[in-house]
Amino acid sequence: MNATRSPPLLNTLTSSRRTGFNRAFAAVYTCAILALFYRHTQTLIGSKTLVSFYVTLALSVSDLILAFMWANGQAFRMRPVYRKEFPDNIEKVVNTSDLPGLDVFICTADPYKEPPMSVVNTALSVMAYDYPTDKISLYVSDDGGSAFTLFAFMEAARFAAHWLPYCRENDIAKRSPDEYFATNYSRSSQTEKIKLMYESIKMKVEHIVGKGEVSEEYITGDEERKAFRKWSSDGFSRQNHPAVIQVLLDKNKDKDITGHCLPNLVYISRQKSKTSPHHFKAGALNVLVRVSAAMTNAPVILTLDCDTYSNDPRTPLRVLCYVLDPEIQKNLAYIQFPQEFHGLNKNDIYACEHKRLYKVHQVGLDGLFGPNYLGTGCFFRRRALFGDPSTIVSPETKDLSPDFVINQPITAPSVLELAHRVAGCNYENQTKWGYKIGFRYGSLSEDYYTGYHMKCEGWRSIFCYPEKPAFLGDVPSNLLDVLGQNKRWAIGLLEVAFSRYSSITYGVKAMGLLMGLAYSYFAFWPIYAIPVTTYSFLPQLALLHGVSIFPKVSEPWFLLYMFLFLGAYGQDLLEFVIDGGTIQRWWSDQRMWMMRGLSCYLFGLTEFFLKSIGIPTEGFNVTSKVTDDEQSKRYEQGLFEFRVASPLFVTLATAALINLSSFILGLINFLNGNNGEGLLMQLVLTGLIVMNCVPIYQAMVLRSDKRKMPIKTSISAAILASVVYVVASPFSK
To answer: Which residues cross the membrane (predicted)?
Structure first.
């Protein structure tokens, strides 16, 4: 009798060995937090002056917020897991001809902040996947309606006929042309020919962007010329233009130089109107969902940022290790890859790696119901965008349903007519798009909000974290862009935290306690501004006036404070280093945590509440992906960029000045024996903040380059610091 043959192994799951330690430490740390609030209560009751009462109250509120965020963060540590995939076994499970189709979505909005050639490189890297090209369809959403971007993709379509077979024949790993030609690639006559072809296209595209117009001398073909006549040179700022859909490559007609079919490539500029909400990126993604449904309707969708290129051509096969697993696929919504970056400087001075957000926390969520949607590098099952696992929410026309079978080519008149109609600015009126179907509206952080709602509906997700990064993206290389991006995230997260779908109420009820707490950690992230601001000013002002607000070294409570401080930072450092980080990058990370709390979180929190009471605030801004040579050089040197006079820098400089003054005066008093035992904790805290503020002091005083802190900002900070000191004069009484 023959034994039953087991199916090939597609993936494995392993629990982290730190789980037991995490749970034990959480129990001990909880007891310490309770003891801290017992002391705060005693101190409040025993307050003899109004000033001491308010000081203790401010510290108590700050510690309550820190305790709340710490409790939320423990959800990530309760069951972290690690996965491994076996993509070589896919061919044993399914025939190549039966592999599911893949629709790739790339969104761009401004050709000056998101250079067209960067978007083109992202597109070419996924078009060259080790996956049947007749199964791949690439959809590019250009929310700027830019002739520059369309021109770049027309050129990319021609180049793809040479680039894809070159990648296939030479089995190259980096399939973004920019990245490949920046490496020590194997030189040959074929390679040099391809490189020359690419550099010619790149030079042509960058020239027209720099020139500010597309001359018809660059356009080949009557259809292309006709398309370009629809736009003026400032087309990216135009409103009310009709939806534009250009099929640049059709797999049924277009072949590469070896005779293989090329993937579908479709350019889309949706219709936008000042009288109709367009919902930013979420709206653009929903247009792509509908247009792709009308044209190809692939069961798997990949969403990518325009600057995030593929670093591993076998990534789709890793995804299929979960999509084709019968034990997982029923409730599976998406497979999320970590966001990883190229071009980070040695110490990652702006903490753009976001190791906790993009890796550590996602590993923890994977042991519960799966990671959150991070906005890029995510493979969705199309079905998950249409209702919960058990009930499909039907769109307004069956042609857009996830199970609808398309039997016409993408250039068929009826297909194009439907595609143009669903890309119209009024199409979503009186429909469920953005609320029950597709990517969700209601938050600037559409990625967080969409993933959150999917989990509330009963879907789960997978975190795929291979040793070789699947995708690599760009990072902002100046501080203002970093803080601006984080402020936008902060506002988007607060829009969820204080809505009727708040994760701490609705989320806990829908997903369970641990998942609700985990999502609350993200949603309430910006309220870190309150304790960070409090501990950056209050103890320092007290120190300036020689007033002790923490326990003396000889008191037993001092040991409690030391345990709370060292325990939290020690565990954080341990997780950071175990996940491959360095101590220098960890220091940069905690420094930027402080800087964000004093700037973008504080301003984001303020802007959100102003918006909540009807006071208008600034709108959505695209983060620039453009970096000049001088800026890149200083970033590589580890120098902070402060050249723009921004309110975000004023609060940072104010805190830096107050802490430096407090530390110098406190140190003098300590050395002279003036209440040194009672002021030691404040002195240590202030000293640590001063160390974190070294880049600010350098930019204010020590640097002479153009990127230093503007004099206007330094003077404003000095005046504000003086005002704060005067206002705090009751400390001396």
So the answer is: 21-38, 50-71, 518-538, 558-578, 644-668, 680-702, 714-732
Is 274 annotated to bind ligand? Answer: no
Closest alpha carbon to 483 in 652, 361, 692? 652
Which amino acid, one-letter code, is at 72? N
Query: Which residue in 287, 272, 299, 620 sits closest to 431, CA to CA?
Result: 287
CB contact set of 626 (below 8 Å; sequence gap of 6+): 112, 113, 115
What sign does the dihedral 56-59-63-64 (CA atoms) show?
Answer: positive
Cβ atoms of 285 and 446 closer than 8 Å: yes
Catalytic residue among 63, 103, 142, 143: 143
Instruction: List, as one string, the DSSP characters of 367-408.
Output: TTT-PPP-SSSEEEEGGGGBB-SS-B---SSGGGSTTPPP-S
Contacts of 553 (CB under 8 A, 6+ apart): 677, 680, 681
16-37 as b/e: b if 16+ CB within 10 A? beebeebeebbeebeeebeebe
Is 113 labeled as ligand-binding? yes
**Is position 169 annotated in a ligand binding site?**
no
Residue recorded with tokens 């060259």: 128
Contact between 621 and 444 (Cβ < 8 Å):
no
pLDDT tens, 212-251? 766 555 555 555 555 555 544 434 444 556 789 999 999 9
Give 465: exposed, middle or buried? Use CB within 10 Å, 0-12, 13-18, 19+. Answer: buried
CB 572 within 8 A of CB 355: no
Q: Is 325 known as a binding-site position?
A: no
Q: What are phi and psi of 674, to 5 degrees?
A: -85, 95
Share of the chain above pLDDT 90, in %: 79
Percent of the chain with pLDDT over 70: 93
In a 3-state reduction of DSSP, which class is residue 336? Answer: strand
Label residue 305 left, alpha or beta by phi (over 0 means left) and psi (-120 to 50 means alpha): beta
Strands 332-336 and 378-381: antiparallel
Tell how far CA 42 is from the center of its chain: 43
The verdict on whether 388 is a catalytic residue reads no
For residue range 10-40, list pLDDT tens digits in order.
999 999 999 999 999 999 999 999 999 999 9
Q: Pull the structure tokens for residue 603.
A: 């301003």
250 has catalytic annotation: no
Quote the DSSP letter at residue 589.
Answer: H
Say if residue 88 carries a ligand binding annotation.
Answer: no
> Which residue among the candidates 447, 474, 481, 589 is catalytic per the annotation?
447
∠ CA 682-687-690, nearest 5°, is: 125
Task: Check: CB of residue 565 under 8 Å from CB of residue 643.
Answer: no
Helix, strand and coil content of the chain, in percent to the nearest 5, comes to 55, 10, 35
